[in-house]
Amino acid sequence: MKAEVVSLLFTPTVFARGEAYLREGRVRSVSLIAPGLFHGEVEGGSLYDVVIHIDDVAMRCTISCSCPFAAKDRHCKHSAAVMLAIGDVVDDGSGMVPSPQNGADEVSEMWLDGDHSIRTDVYDEVRSRLIPWYGEHGPLLVWDEAVVEDRPRTMAGDTDTNKLRFPVLSELQAGRMAESFIQSFLESGGARNDVGHAFKGADIVLDNALAVADHGSALSNALLVMRIVGDSLEYVGDGGEIIVNQLERLSWKVRLLVEKAAGDERSGAGECMAAATGIVDVLLGVPEELGERLGVALLSFSRRRTTRRIADEALSGLERSMDGDIATRRSSRLYSYMCRLRHDDLLLSGEHDRAERFESDHTDDETMAWLAAVRSLLTDSPDRVQGIIDRYHAMATEWDLDSSPIPSSPCTWMELLAAVAQRRGDDDALERLRTKAISEQHRTYVGDWEHE
Fold first, then answer.
1. How far apart are the first and last CA of the chain?
2. What share of residues in the chain are helix, strand, coil (percent, to 5)?
3. Does residue 286 contact residue 227 with C-beta atoms inside 8 Å?
4. Distances from the Cα of 202 to the Cαs of 97, 172, 232, in angstroms?
5. What's the CA gap between 88 and 248, in Å, rounded?
6. Minimal CA–CA distance to 354: which of 370, 343, 366?
7. CA 131, 136, 141, 147 torsion: positive or negative?
8. Contact at 8 Å (CB) between 414 and 402?
C-alpha cells in the first residue's frame, strides 16, 4: 500500500515508527488469508498479530493489533508497518512477505545514520519537529474543542416558549429512572444482549437536562445519574466496546450541559460552583474510565473569565486530595489525570507563566516532565532539560525511552535525550544511547538504566 495513503491513517510519529519497523525487518510475515483480509506478524516487545480488513466496495479499512497500545483504541506502529508491507504482498502475487535478510540489524532511530553513527544535526532536527507541535504555549492534553462546536445544537430550541414545554425532572424522578433501567437489565439475567439498555434511563435524564432552562436542577440531576451509572459498572459487567461507547455518550452530554451552563450569563455563580464541586466528587468516586470522561467538563469554567475562579478552586481542591504519600501519588492514574487537567485549565485561562511553574513543580509525572523538558529545549536550555530528565528518572518506577507520554509528540524520550546530549557535547551519553538503541531498543527502563 502506498506510503502517502497509509500516512493519512496514523499520527506522524506512529507512521515514522511503522516505516522504520518495515525497514528493520520486524514484519515477519504478511498473508492474504481471505478476500480483503490480511494477517501480519510483527516483532515488537513480543510477536504481535495485526489484522487489516480492506473493503473496496464500502471504501473502508479496519485495523486491529494485539499490542497494548492498540488495546487503548489507538492505531499503532505495528499496524502501520503491516499496511506498508501489504503493497509487497499485492505486487509479487505470492500472498506472503518473505522474511528479511539481516533486518534485525537495522536501527529505527531517526537520529542515527544507516551505518549506526550519530547524525551531526540531531539537536536541530529534533527541535525542528518539536517547534510546530508545541506551538506558543504547549499542546492541550484533555480539552476537546468539539464541545464548543456542539453546544449551539443544544440551544436550538432554547426559546422562552420552548422552555415552558420541558419541565425539569425532580431529583426523585431522575434517580429512579436511572436506577430502574439498570435494575431491569440486571434482572434480565443476560437475556438483554445490549448492555447500553442499562443506561437508557440515565440517557433520558440527560436529554431532559439539556432541554430545560433550570441549569441548577439540570446539573444536579446529571451528576446524580452519573454517580448511579458509576456505581453500577461493577455489576453491569464488561460490555466491551458497547459500554465504552455508552459511557462516552453519557459523559459527552454532561460536558455539553456544563458548557451550556457556563456560557449562559443567566446561570448563577452558586449553580456553577455546585456543579464544579459535584464534578470533582464524581471524579473521585466513580471508576476511572467514567471519571476521566467527566472531569474535563471543569474546563468549560476555566476558559471563561466570569467562571475562571470556580474552576481554579475546584481543581485546587482536587490537587489537595492528591497530597500524602509521594510513592502512592506517583503510581496513581488519577494523579496523572489531575496534572493533565490542571495543565489545560491554566492554558485555557491564559495563565501561561503559572502553567510553566506547574509543569516544573510536577516533574514526578511523566507528562509534566516531558512538557517541561520540551519547553526548555525550545528555549535552548540543554542543562535545564538534563536536570528535568534526571529528576524524573530518579523518581520513575518505569520508563519506556522508546515512546513519549503524549501520543501526538513528534519524537521519543530517546531522541530527546540524544538531542540534549549532542547539544551539551556529552559524547559518552551519546554513545550509551547509540548502543542501547541498537541492542536494547524494546526494553522498559527503570532504576539506574533498564529492566528487561
1. 35
2. 60, 10, 30
3. yes
4. 50, 13, 12
5. 39
6. 343
7. negative
8. yes
Instruction: Take residue 359 and report the three cell numbers written for it.
Output: 509543569
pTM of the model: 0.70
Cα 452 from Cα 440, distance rounded (Å): 9
Burial class (CB in 10 A: 0-12, 13-18, 19+), 154: middle
Looking at residue 343, its pLDDT comes to 97
Please, what are the averages of pLDDT over each run of 10 residues along the chain (452 residues)?
78 86 86 78 81 73 78 77 75 45 38 59 88 92 86 52 65 91 80 73 91 90 95 79 86 94 86 94 90 94 94 93 64 88 96 95 93 95 93 82 84 90 88 72 38 32
Tell me the three cell numbers of residue 403. Answer: 515512546
186-197: burial string, b at 16+ Cβ within 10 Å, e else = eeeeeeeeebbb
Question: Which of these, 437, 445, 444, 449, lies nearest to 113 by C-alpha position?
Answer: 437
* Cell 504482498, located at residue: 89
Q: What is residue 112's predicted lDDT score, i.e. its pLDDT?
A: 60
Supply the angle between the helices 308-321 and 333-348 in degrees, to the nearest 10. Answer: 160
Q: Report the distance separating Cα 340 and Cα 144, nearest Å.
A: 13
